[in-house]
């Protein structure tokens, strides 16, 4: 017999809000990268302007979580669900900020032709978006195996980041300003992947009630 | 915190208590050791193969839904359960290494070492002073000076001295419910017990009196071992060191309270403490 139907439905609401925030962040990263690829400055501006939606939603999640703790005194898995929602939404909101940062760099690069193909960055972006997808899915289904997979993908992003920076450093004499901005973008993507890995760790904690060392 | 180097990750890794990396300390003394305890009320099997070790100077909480056997268990620890005519018991309960279920064990000895506080405050219809002095007098203490000392010490110990010191000769029935309950705890302390059993001691009290009793329990555990049956799971979480979850006469899980309320092993414990049944 379910005796806390209302609490259950409020927990579900909280989870849905976190997933919605995840979709917003994903869109921010997709749009900003597409703005970069097409050097579409108008689109880059839109990403920056849309960011406050994510900020507001994160605040709403925090408020809802605090109210649930205060009013329902959750324990065990329920408490972990709420704490994880707070932690994960903070990671997701940072991802949206990185989307904004990519958009800002895109504007700084402007319409000058690229000095090098941005294939490494593209590869990083594809893997990172997939990590976000997986992390949201793992959160939704409380799936520890998916969470582990995310950690493995992060290693690949780290490798690509290293390669990107090495390549870009060869080009400093051609256009330092663009090299700097492209390096920043590589860094933003690498950090985004780190936040997806944080989410994976939070999901492991949520499900198992233990902290995870993803390198174990 | 998704550190990129292995070392960083290792630094951040926190092992759980259950994995056993953590608390190292002196071995704890066992007050009660229950071994294969079974109890029947007539045909009804009320306690099934209970095995529990209860430690000195700790608060042990017993939780579980109505009819799970938790009150029966606590009343077995001072053999009050024997007042039910149809009761049958097998197994052992070692109190300080002596089996209290043994025929030769004198129940009077047990009752002077193990005090009990009940759900409803039950002061005697006497003065506050007499409520406390009653037990020591029965045990042969006659000196007024010694009795005065015991009364003050006990009332102080139960955190009620300041509220009653000017009206010790008034009837205890004039006290509020919360005060009466602390008076009963003081009455328990007057015989200088080793263990205090508490059977839902705050379920008839208002929230502030409840918190006072909870604070008191935390202080008392420095000198006594306390076993408390409670319906209030948050109370168990707040005040106990170990928690036993009873269900249908069995102990489903017995663990550190921190673990029970953060990450219990058994699905039934999880369902009960998160309010999904019961």
Automatic annotation (TrEMBL), chain A:
- What biological-process GO terms show up in the record? intracellular phosphate ion homeostasis; negative regulation of phosphate metabolic process; phosphate ion transport
User: Which taxonomic lineage does the organism of this UniProt entry have?
Assistant: Bacteria, Bacillati, Bacillota, Bacilli, Bacillales
Q: Where in the cell is it found?
A: Cytoplasm
SUPFAM superfamilies, sorted: PhoU-like
Task: Assign the protein's first listed, main location to one coarse class.
Answer: cytoplasm
Described by its record, this protein's role is as follows: Plays a role in the regulation of phosphate uptake.
Q: Which gene encodes it?
A: phoU
Question: What's this protein's family per the entry?
Answer: Belongs to the PhoU family.
Keyword Signal applies: no
Assembly state and interactors? Answer: Homodimer.
Tell me which GO cellular component terms the UniProt record holds: cytoplasm
PhoU domain location: 19-105, 121-203
The name under which this protein is listed is: Phosphate-specific transport system accessory protein PhoU
From TrEMBL, chain B:
Entry GO CC = plasma membrane
Q: What topology in the membrane does the UniProt record assign?
A: Peripheral membrane protein
Localization per record = Cell inner membrane
* Regions of compositional bias (Basic and acidic residues) in chain numbering: 1-20
Stretches for region Disordered: 1-21
InterPro entries assigned: AAA+_ATPase, ABC_transporter-like_ATP-bd, ABC_transporter-like_CS, P-loop_NTPase, PstB-like
Question: Which PROSITE patterns does this one have?
Answer: ABC_TRANSPORTER_1, ABC_TRANSPORTER_2
User: What GO molecular function terms would the record report?
Assistant: ATP binding; ATP hydrolysis activity; phosphate transmembrane transporter activity
The segment(s) forming the ABC transporter domain are: 32-273
Specify one Pfam family. Answer: ABC_tran
A Gene Ontology biological process in which this protein takes part is: phosphate ion transmembrane transport
**Record flagged with keyword Oxidoreductase:** no
Report keywords, A-Z: ATP-binding, Cell membrane, Membrane, Nucleotide-binding, Phosphate transport, Translocase, Transport
The protein's role, per its UniProt record: Part of the ABC transporter complex PstSACB involved in phosphate import. Responsible for energy coupling to the transport system.
Protein name as annotated: Phosphate ABC transporter ATP-binding protein
Upper classification of the source organism reads:
Bacteria, Bacillati, Bacillota, Bacilli, Bacillales
């Amino acid at each position: 017999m379910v005796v806390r139907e209302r609490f259950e439905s409020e927990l579900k609401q909280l989870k849905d809000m976190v997933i919605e925030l995840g979709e917003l962040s994903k869109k921010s990263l997709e749009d900003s990268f597409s703005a970069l690829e097409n050097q579409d400055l108008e689109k880059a501006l839109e990403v920056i302007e849309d960011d406050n939606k994510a900020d507001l939603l994160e605040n709403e999640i925090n408020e809802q979580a605090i109210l649930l703790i205060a009013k329902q005194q959750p324990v065990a898995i329920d408490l972990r669900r709420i704490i994880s929602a707070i932690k994960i939404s903070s990671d997701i909101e940072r991802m949206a900020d990185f989307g904004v940062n990519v958009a800002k760099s895109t504007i700084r690069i402007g319409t000058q032709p690229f000095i090098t193909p941005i294939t490494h960055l593209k590869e990083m972006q594809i893997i990172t978006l997939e990590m976000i997808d997986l992390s949201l899915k793992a959160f939704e289904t409380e799936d520890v195996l998916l969470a582990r997979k995310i950690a493995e993908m992060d290693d690949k992003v780290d490798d690509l980041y290293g390669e990107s920076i090495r390549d870009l450093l060869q080009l400093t004499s051609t256009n330092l300003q663009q090299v700097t901005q492209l390096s920043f973008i590589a860094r933003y993507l690498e950090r985004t992947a780190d936040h997806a890995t944080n989410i994976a760790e939070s999901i492991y904690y949520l499900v198992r009630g233990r902290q995870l060392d993803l390198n174990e | 915190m998704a550190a990129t180097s292995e070392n960083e990750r290792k630094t951040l890794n926190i092992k759980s208590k259950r994995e056993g990396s953590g608390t190292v300390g002196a071995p704890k003394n066992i007050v009660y050791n229950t071994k294969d305890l079974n109890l029947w009320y007539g045909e009804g099997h009320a306690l099934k193969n209970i095995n529990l070790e209860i430690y000195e100077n700790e608060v042990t909480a017993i939780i579980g839904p109505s009819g799970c056997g938790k009150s029966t268990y606590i009343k077995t620890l001072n053999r009050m359960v024997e007042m039910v005519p149809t009761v049958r018991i097998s197994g052992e309960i070692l109190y300080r290494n002596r089996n209290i279920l043994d025929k030769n064990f004198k129940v009077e000895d047990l009752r002077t070492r193990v005090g009990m506080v009940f759900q409803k405050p039950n002061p005697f219809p006497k003065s506050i002073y007499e409520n406390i002095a009653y037990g020591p007098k029965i045990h042969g203490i006659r000196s007024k000076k010694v009795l005065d000392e015991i009364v003050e010490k006990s009332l102080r110990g139960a955190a009620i001295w300041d509220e009653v010191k000017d009206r010790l000769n008034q009837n205890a029935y004039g006290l509020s419910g919360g005060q009466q309950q602390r008076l009963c705890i003081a009455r328990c302390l007057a015989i200088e017990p080793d263990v205090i059993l508490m059977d839902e001691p705050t379920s008839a009290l208002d929230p502030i009196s409840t918190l006072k009793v909870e604070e008191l329990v935390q202080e008392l555990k420095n000198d006594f071992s306390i076993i408390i049956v409670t319906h209030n799971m948050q109370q168990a979480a707040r005040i106990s060191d170990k928690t036993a979850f009873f269900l249908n006469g069995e102990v489903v899980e017995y663990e550190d309270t921190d673990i029970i309320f953060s990450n219990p092993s058994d699905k039934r414990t999880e369902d009960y403490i998160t309010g999904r049944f019961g």
